UniProtKB/TrEMBL annotation:
The lineage of its organism: Bacteria, Pseudomonadati, Pseudomonadota, Alphaproteobacteria, Hyphomicrobiales. The keyword Aminoacyl-tRNA synthetase does not apply. The keyword Transmembrane applies. The chain crosses the membrane at residues 12-34, 82-102, 108-129, 136-157, 177-203, 294-311, 318-341, 361-386. This is Uncharacterized protein. Keywords: Membrane, Transmembrane, Transmembrane helix.
Length: 387
């Protein structure tokens, strides 16, 4: 409450900086305390390494392997032709480089790096939240102490993906297209869907062009007449193209990251059929929805929020988020909860909506903090909806 006081209207610059930097730090500490308590309830080993290792679930172990060993040239023996190629290189490469400087286990380095990325993502989100104090508090709580905070504080791509996405949209908000293109390239090296943020860039260019009074038909001519805009567009998927080239030179298949998906049970199919199968997977006992149902709810809810973004005229963010949900949904519902909560434009808008009144703000804050402990235990226990 003291920090909220500091951020009152009319506060000076120094007070505002203290608020912006201190709020996420508060939730870094509280989130660590809550998640560690969940870990300690099932483990007698008190070390931070044990905590980080226990929270390293599912895809996390693949990223640890990439950071330590890189990519293999052939499928891993005795693992049904599975390879690491489906996991994009930027984040494990960053962790690997940091690990060469600091003599700590990879998972410890990755956990600290993820917390730092999520902290930075909160700070970057301040102007994207229109400097809304209550929304900023909620957003920081959600990322760092919320029910899905383990996704943003262990070795998964979500921390870097959220940070880079926020930077791209902040650059677009300020019409800094070269910066947006550069960070889009990094985003496309983090996850394959990051390459599609280029559509948000083009939409923002078109929006700025129309605000200047330009005719629709002349938009392509305007873009081709601006080398900075062309460069921003062309470099956006550079990270993806670099990875394709790397795979071609080392594995012999530039699209190995797509072809290996079959080994993980991801096969292209009917989106509506996947959703129906998820919704119809009724619990055999009790009323709590099954993991497939939660995944289907997340996908539908995420697409609905994309519609709200479009209604609020945030067309670039709406298109990008819709692609990020639909593309993996083409293969199945796996990881859908994680994919949806890891979309910064959706969570930023949701925090703005929840902070509309003090009552909803307090309720949401209490819910985020209260749900962190049981959700962390569910994550450690391997609950499939959280994969």
């Amino acid at each position: 409450m003291a920090l909220l006081n500091i951020a009152r209207p009319g506060a000076n610059f120094r007070a505002m900086v203290i608020f912006i930097t201190a709020i996420p730090l508060v939730f870094v500490v509280s989130g660590l305390a809550i998640r560690y308590a969940a870990f300690a309830s099932i483990s007698a080993e008190p070390t931070f390494e044990a905590y980080a290792r226990t929270l390293c679930r599912w895809d996390c172990s693949w990223y640890v392997g990439i950071a330590e060993k890189g990519y293999e040239r052939f499928p891993i023996a005795n693992q049904s032709n599975v390879g690491r190629w489906g996991f994009f290189p930027l984040y494990p490469m960053i962790v690997g480089m940091i690990g060469t400087v600091f003599p700590f286990p990879t998972i410890v380095v990755a956990t600290i790096t993820s917390i730092a990325c999520s902290y930075a993502a909160c700070v970057v989100a301040w102007p994207l939240l229109e400097k809304n104090v209550r929304a900023y508090v909620l957003y920081c709580a959600f990322l760092l102490s919320g029910p899905f905070s383990f996704h943003f504080t262990t070795f998964l791509t979500e921390p870097l993906f959220v940070l880079l996405t926020s930077i791209v949209f902040l650059a677009l908000k300020r019409s800094n297209y070269l910066a947006a293109g550069l960070f889009s390239a990094l985003l496309s090296a983090t996850r394959v869907v990051g390459a599609f943020v280029v559509f948000a860039t083009v939409i923002q260019m078109f929006k700025d062009y129309r605000q200047q009074g330009g005719a629709i038909r002349s938009f392509p001519v305007w873009v081709f007449g601006r080398p900075d805009l062309l460069i921003a567009i062309l470099i956006s998927p550079a990270g993806l193209f670099a990875y394709i080239l790397f795979l071609y030179l080392t594995v012999g298949d530039g699209f190995a990251f797509l072809h290996v998906q079959r080994a993980f049970g991801r096969v292209a199919g009917n989106v509506f059929l996947y959703l129906w199968e998820g919704l119809s997977a009724m619990p055999t006992a009790g009323w709590i929805p099954t993991a497939p149902q939660w995944s289907a709810f997340a996908a539908i809810g995420g697409l609905a929020l994309c519609g709200v973004l479009a209604f609020r005229k945030q067309y670039g963010a709406a298109v990008f988020c819709a692609i990020c949900i639909t593309l993996p949904l083409i293969t199945n519902l796996a990881s859908m909860v994680r994919y949806v909560v890891g979309l910064a434009p959706l969570t930023i808008m949701l925090m703005q909506l929840l902070s509309a009144s003090k009552l909803t703000w307090l309720a949401a804050l209490a819910l985020f903090l209260g749900a962190c402990y049981p959700m962390t235990k569910a994550w450690i226990g391997g609950y499939l909806a959280l994969v």
